[in-house]
Design a protein that fits this description.
Helices cover 42% and strands 19% of the residues. The chain is of the alpha+beta class.
Length: 149
């Protein structure tokens, strides 16, 4: 099993969890992760990542910060943009697989030679462009000015 993570801080899209059934069998399920955390920097310099909608009390100066001060529409808009970027990369991979697999299975097994070329194209051309766009979206994300309670 991978590293232990809080519900909204792992970089994976899904986290696995185990459950016991009524018969005592252990069952592993995949559950979607929570929303990405919001980093709060207190006026005293203390920094903490907090989930949207939660309240945080600074350990140093005891100021309370509430992330519900952030407009829900703006936060949801940011989540939609991030989801769209992730969906784009999954869709590109699915389209490539939808083209290559029938070519290999139906037309000729000689098309297997295209897989390394497709992987290199993905790694050296598509992925860097996608990462730049993803990082630009993160950089251009709105910055909210929270006020202590």
């Amino acid at each position: 099993m991978g590293p232990r993570c809080e519900s909204n801080t792992c970089r994976r899209r899904f986290q696995s969890s185990t459950h016991r059934t009524s018969r005592g069998d252990v069952r592993r399920t995949m559950t979607p992760m929570g929303k990405p955390p919001i980093t709060i920097t207190c006026e005293c310099g203390e920094t903490k990542s907090v989930a949207y909608g939660q309240r945080w009390v600074c350990d140093r100066c005891h100021r309370a910060w509430n992330t519900q001060q952030i407009p829900a529409e703006e936060y949801e808009g940011l989540l939609r943009r991030v989801r769209r970027h992730k969906l784009e990369v999954v869709a590109m991979g699915a389209i490539a697989a939808a083209v290559l697999i029938p070519l290999i299975v139906v037309v000729s097994s000689g098309f297997v030679i295209l897989i390394p070329a497709a992987m290199m194209t993905w790694l050296f051309l598509v992925l860097p462009v996608w990462r730049r766009r993803y990082r630009r979206t993160a950089r251009e994300a709105p910055r909210w000015e929270l006020h202590p309670e």
